[in-house]
Every structure is written in C-alpha cells, then in structure tokens.
C-alpha cells in the first residue's frame, strides 16, 4: 500500500521539447531504482522561462534541466553556479541545494565520464571540432580532466579563439585555435579526436566533416557528441579504421546519470538508461 502520493518533481524546460528523449531515460531510472520521483518534459518559450522557473520553485521541484534555447538565459533566475558551469557560461542542470538554486553543466562531465571508460584523459592531446555550447563544455571538462593540449578547429574564427582563450585562462591545459581549412588533416600526434559540431545531426545524417579521413589513425580515440544518429558517418569511418570510439548516446546517458545523482543522491544504473533510450529511439 502507498501512503505517500507526493513525488519529488524534476523535469526539463526547452523549446522544442517533443523530440527530447531524456524524459524516457530518466523515468526508467527512477522506476528501476524505486525512486519516488517524476520527470516532466515541458515546452517553454523564452518569454515564459522566468515564469516556468518561478513555477518550479513555487511547486517545490527539486531540480530541472534546461536545453535549447535556455542554457544561458536561465542563469539570471538562479542563486549561483557550479565551478565548470561558471567557466562554460551555460547550464543544463539546475539543482536545489540548501534552499538555493544552483546551475550546473553536465554536458562536458557526461562526455568525460564516457571518455574515461575508454582512455585515461590525463596528458592527452585533443583535437576538438566545434566551438558552440557543447564544444565549450567538452573543452573545459577535458582540460579539467587533465588533457595536456586542446586544438580547437572551428569554422568561425572568433568563436574558436574564444574557446581556446577560455581554456588557457582557466585551466592548466594549453589550447590554440586552428583554422578549419578544406580537407583538414588531423595532426598525427592527436590522441583523442572529437566532433562537437552539429554536422551529421538528424535529419542531415549524410553531412560529413570537411576533413581528410585518411588522417584518422587507428590509435586515435574518436568521439562524436551527436546522439541522433548514434553512429554518425564520422564514427563509422573511425570504427572501420579500428579506432576506439565514444558516441553521443553514451554522453547523453552519462550526463543524465550525473544529473539524477544531483537530484536524488543515488548512482543510477547507466545501462537501464541506455537500454531505454535505444528502446524509445528504435536503435
Ligand atoms: P551550437 O549551435 O552552439 O554550435 C554548433 C557548432 O557546429 C559550431 O561550432 C558551428 O560552427 C559548427 N557547425 C555547424 N554547422 C557547421 C558546418 N556546416 N561546417 C562547420 N561547422 C559547423 O550547438 P551545440 O554546441 O549546442 O551542439 C552541437 C552538437 O552537440 C549538436 O549536434 C548537439 O546535438 C550535440 N550535443 C549533444 C549532447 C549529448 O548529450 N549527446 C549534449 C549537447 C549537445 P560555427 O561556430 O562556425 O558556427
């Protein structure tokens, strides 16, 4: 018999929201671990963000995710930021701690967690394609996880230089911007190569990075932040060459595991979340 009909509430504010599978993944973990929690996927426009956050506070939510386009705008409604969220300048997970609403960024943390299952990140040279929100999070967390050098290869020079500067100013890693020339060749001493651009994201699944694919060497660990599809052209090429790989689904699951730990204090089973994602996405 249940005598407690009042679950803890968590959720997500994003626009659009309907294609985001996080709700299925998180609720599967709550169910598996018998956690009296719910996760509500909410479509919230930019003009309604303030009211949505105030609503969550008023209803006693314990935390929530923010996705596109709210990852930066939400900061003004919070009481503080975690260390890496402060550096990244964007948050995706909000957690209530000691009655204060704190913004964290688990995108890069989830990525590093998945990466560490494949390679020790300490002292490694990283080539990172992209300089948007995901790339900023990945660059900062890879640097905090001990990467020695991070090359930022990006189409727009201004954004690329900004990320390199961010890493150089705030971490012990050395970073530089590299111009993305046509048919770019990855430097052969790169240990880890990461696509953090949106090239290859559904529905443009046939789009390819403008790189020399012969420069991907079997000893490189190759990662892609795109979770839909989990096997991008970039990753398929790397797998064919014998590289170890990390895909965007692993990143999504691991950032979810970290977020749920913030809210529930429970280390949930990543496999349960991964299986549910594969189930709902039909992959
Ligand atoms: P942004 O829009 O902030 O950044 C997009 C990046 O892609 C920029 O660096 C942009 O370059 C680059 N880019 C886009 N199109 C091209 C192109 N045709 N040629 C060269 N560069 C291009 O997006 P996000 O950083 O938020 O997201 C990037 C990807 O990461 C998305 O696919 C997203 O799904 C994924 N992601 C995955 C997560 C996960 O958990 N698996 C979490 C968060 C994001 P420029 O600066 O020149 O415009």
Strand-helix topology:
Blueprint (H helix, E strand, L loop, with lengths): L7 E7 L7 H11 L4 E7 L5 H10 L4 E4 L13 E2 L1 H6 L4 E5 L2 E5 L2 H10 L8 E5 L3 H12 L4 E6 L2 H14 L3 E6 L12 E4 L25 E4 L8 H8 L3 E3 L1 H17 L5 H12 L2
Parallel strand pairs: 1-2, 1-3, 4-6, 7-8, 7-10, 8-9, 10-11, 11-12
Antiparallel strand pairs: 3-5, 5-6
The structure holds NADPH dihydro-nicotinamide-adenine-dinucleotide phosphate.
The site of NADPH dihydro-nicotinamide-adenine-dinucleotide phosphate has 24 residues, from helix 4, helix 5 and helix 8.
Number of helices: 9
The CATH topology of the largest domain turns out to be Rossmann fold
In CATH, what is the class of the largest domain? Answer: Alpha Beta
Approximate strand percentage: 15-25%
Total count of domains:
2
Q: In this structure, how is the largest beta sheet organized? A: 6 strands, mixed
CATH superfamily placement of the largest domain: NAD(P)-binding Rossmann-like Domain
Helix content: 25-40%
Q: Give the overall pLDDT as a whole number.
A: 96
Termini Cα gap: 37 Å
- Rg value: 19 Å
Q: What strand line-up does the widest sheet have?
A: 2-1-3-5-6-4
Shape, please?
globular
Run of helices and strands: EHEHEEHEEHEHEHEEEHEHH
Instruction: Please state the second-level CATH architecture of the largest domain.
Output: 3-Layer(aba) Sandwich
């Amino acid at each position: 018999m249940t005598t407690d009909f009042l679950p803890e509430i968590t959720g997500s504010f994003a626009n659009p929201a309907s294609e985001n599978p996080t709700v299925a993944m998180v609720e599967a973990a709550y169910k598996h671990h018998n956690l009296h929690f719910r996760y509500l996927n909410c479509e919230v426009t930019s003009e309604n963000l303030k009211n949505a956050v105030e609503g969550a506070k008023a209803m006693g939510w314990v935390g929530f995710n923010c996705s596109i386009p709210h990852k930066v705008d939400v900061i003004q409604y919070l009481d503080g930021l975690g260390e890496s969220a402060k550096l990244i300048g964007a948050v995706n997970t909000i957690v209530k701690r000691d009655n204060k609403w704190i913004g964290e960024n688990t995108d890069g943390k989830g990525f590093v967690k998945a990466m560490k299952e494949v390679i020790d990140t300490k002292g490694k040279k990283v080539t990172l394609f992209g300089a948007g929100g995901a790339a900023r999070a990945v660059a900062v967390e890879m640097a905090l996880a001990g990467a020695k050098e991070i090359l930022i290869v990006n189409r727009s020079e201004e954004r690329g230089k900004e990320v390199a500067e961010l890493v150089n100013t705030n971490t012990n890693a050395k970073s530089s911007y590299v111009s993305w020339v046509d048919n770019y060749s990855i430097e052969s001493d790169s240990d880890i190569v990461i696509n953090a651009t949106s090239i290859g994201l559904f529905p443009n699944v046939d789009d390819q990075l403008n790189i020399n694919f012969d420069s991907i060497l079997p000893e490189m660990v190759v990662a892609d932040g795109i979770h839909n599809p989990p096997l991008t052209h970039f990753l398929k090429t790397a797998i064919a060459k014998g590289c170890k790989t990390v895909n965007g689904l692993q990143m999504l699951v691991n950032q979810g595991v970290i977020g749920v730990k913030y809210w529930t204090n429970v280390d949930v089973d990543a496999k349960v979340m991964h299986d549910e994602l594969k189930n709902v996405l039909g992959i």
